[in-house]
Design brief:
The chain is of the alpha+beta class. About 45% of the residues lie in helices and about 25% in strands.
């Protein structure tokens, strides 16, 4: 009986690494408040930390730690109640330029963090997480539709050479003003054939002839459903970009969306990215006035916007939009030839055609990129009972982030430069890549949530794992004596390896995942049972103890591989076709099967070699 030295070294290395990367799971997280800028361009430093500390001390809220991290400032609290109060106090002190989010801060020792060892993520059913309730502003989707229809109808009427005075928005529709009844009748016949979603009502007001176009109730409901559906898709894309596992994004009621993020370490970033209703508009700089508004007043057909760089002069842009952000299908942050931050944009086919048509005849003119963002402004007051309340006022912020001369006709691919930092470029690319929101959303509720299945179910799940582990260990000791002890050592190594791997790959453990661990425990000892029974058969057949050990491992190997591979195939199929909890079970089972192969064959063989390898043996304790 001989065993290669390199296998012993491999086992020792795997055991040490597994132990180290499993240790962080012994340190529970604690409630905290995280502060970051409202956008990537706003930095948080020691000054912000000092303001937060002062606000908490003035409010008499105890905390036991605060620090400046790479992505913001973190303040550690004693309890969930203190966490909620601290969030309110800090938000009042810092204002709307900073995001103050609830978080769960790790307590892992620094020496473990130095080797990038971190605790395993837990799903909402085991750990809880952060709960956001967002309200979709349905009025904005109607405004957007009205603007689109206004542009289209004007073009149709001009193409048909039908005279009209104006096309204006009215509640739930549009109204067109005409000089004569004949023009109105002609327009009504033209538009009725193409716009069946409108109810056409002729009217006479103010000595003029009007054609009122009202959206039908079914069309208004379609707009609302589209806004919710598009926002759900975009939010799911943004959650995927954030890398959050086992997240929940679903509709609630007519105009609200619930987002639950389990085990998120940077809730401030999640809140900032999820809630931002940001898009781009590409417009030409008004060349008649060289981009400058006379006397600070925008002439007809133009609009004036601030330039985002400090000290930048306001820019005068044409009202007509070349392309908007909903035509963006790809966005990647990068650097130009001067190492300045940029975002590489890819438009869809229609957007590329619109950009080409606009720039073909305007080479040498300046084009600007307008960043449009819907925000909320918080205002604190008191109600009739003297209790403090927060009022949120929505507003739109439009800023020119780039203006450049068109050097040649542009197509579907081009780049945006002039960004302040790589972080700003990455965030802009993420928002564009994840898709535009159909309508603005505002946070109406934020809280940390407990485990969704209840603490009692969690305790029972953990208890079942522990009881199963103990019963299997006792069974192996009773039936296989010394070899049973060897199997139990390998079982411990197997579980440590599973936890280490799941921690390293940021896989979220859920209650079905615990079921996968329990099943893996059974699979791990099942391989040892096959080996040990084969050894008993060899002993009964007259083989020597050491020959029996060699034959037992060699001849059971094919059966063990077959059983494990077939189970692994099933778990991969579950992962491919399953969702949510099924995926959690499949991931845990797959990792456990691979670890079981190593522990049941390699680890037990090495331990048995240490016990029976270097001496004469007349009897085996099996």
């Amino acid at each position: 009986m001989r065993y290669p030295a390199w296998k012993y070294i491999l086992i020792v290395v795997v055991f040490i690494i597994s132990t180290l990367y499993s240790l962080p799971n012994l340190y529970p997280d604690e409630p905290a408040v995280q502060i970051s800028g409202a956008n990537a361009g706003i930095k948080t430093d020691k000054t912000i930390l000092a303001q937060a500390d002062a606000a908490l001390k003035q409010a008499g809220l105890p905390y036991h730690g605060s620090e400046v991290q790479e992505k913001g400032v973190l303040v550690r609290l004693e309890s969930n109640d203190a966490q909620l109060k601290a969030q309110d106090v800090i938000k009042r002190a810092l204002g709307d330029n900073y995001v103050v989010a609830l978080n769960l801060a790790p307590t892992t020792p620094s020496w473990l963090l130095a080797i990038h060892a971190k605790p395993m993520k837990l799903g909402l059913d085991l750990r809880g997480g952060v709960h956001f309730l967002l309200e979709v502003d349905m009025s904005k989707i109607l405004e957007q539709r009205q603007e689109t229809y206004t542009t289209e109808i004007k073009a149709k009427l001009r193409e048909a050479k039908i005279a009209y005075r104006a096309v204006n928005d009215v509640p739930s529709g549009l109204t067109i003003k005409f000089e004569t009844i004949a023009d109105r009748e002609q327009a009504s016949k033209l538009l009725a054939t193409e716009y069946r979603e409108f109810v056409f009502v002729p009217a006479t007001r103010e000595d003029a002839f009007f054609l009122d176009l009202g959206f039908s109730p079914a069309k208004l409901k379609e707009f609302a459903d589209y806004a919710i559906s598009q926002n759900l898709t975009t939010l799911r894309n943004r959650v995927n970009e954030l890398g959050v596992a086992e997240a929940l994004v679903q509709r609630q009621g007519a105009s609200r969306i619930v987002v639950e993020l389990p085990g998120v370490q940077d809730t401030a970033e999640a809140k900032r990215v999820l809630g931002r209703t940001a898009t781009l508009e590409f417009r030409f700089v008004d060349w008649e006035h060289k981009g400058e508004a006379p006397d600070g007043i925008a002439p007809p057909g133009t609009e004036i916007f601030p330039f985002h760089k400090m000290g930048g002069e306001p820019v005068l842009l044409q009202k007509k939009k070349i392309v908007t952000g909903d035509r963006v299908v790809g966005a990647q942050a990068g650097f130009d030839e001067y190492s300045n931050s940029q975002v590489n944009i890819t438009l869809d086919s229609r957007g590329g055609k619109m950009m080409a048509e606009a720039t073909r005849d305007n080479v040498g003119k300046q084009m600007a990129v307008l960043f449009v963002e819907h925000k909320q402004r918080s205002r604190f007051t008191t109600d009739a009972n003297g209790k403090p309340i927060e009022l949120r006022e929505p507003y739109v912020e439009k800023t020119v982030i780039n203006r450049a001369t068109v050097q040649s006709m542009l197509g579907s691919q081009f780049r945006i430069t002039g960004l302040d930092s790589p972080e700003e470029g990455k965030e802009l690319a993420l928002l564009l890549r994840a898709g535009a929101l159909a309508a603005p959303m505002y946070f109406v509720e934020e809280r940390t949530v407990g485990p969704s299945l209840g603490q009692e179910n969690i305790d029972k799940g953990l208890m079942s794992t522990l009881v199963g582990f103990i019963l299997v260990a006792v069974f192996m000791l009773v039936f296989y004596k010394m070899f049973g002890l060897v199997a139990n050592i390998a079982l411990f190594v197997n579980v440590a390896m599973m936890i280490a791997v799941m921690s390293a790959i940021d896989s979220a453990l859920t209650l079905p995942g615990i079921a996968g661990i329990v099943l893996t425990v059974g699979m791990a000892v099942d391989a040892n049972v096959l080996i040990y029974e084969r050894i008993r058969e060899e002993l009964a057949g007259g083989s020597s103890p050491q020959q029996s050990i060699l034959h037992g491992y060699d001849r059971a190997f094919a059966t063990i591989i077959d059983a494990h591979v077939t189970t692994l195939i099933v778990s991969l199929i579950l992962f491919a076709v399953g969702t949510g909890p099924i995926k959690g079970f499949a991931i845990t089972l797959s990792i456990g099967i691979v670890c079981s192969l190593f522990s049941a064959i390699t680890v037990t063989r090495a331990v048995v070699q240490l016990i029976y390898g270097g001496r004469r043996v007349t009897k085996l304790s099996i």
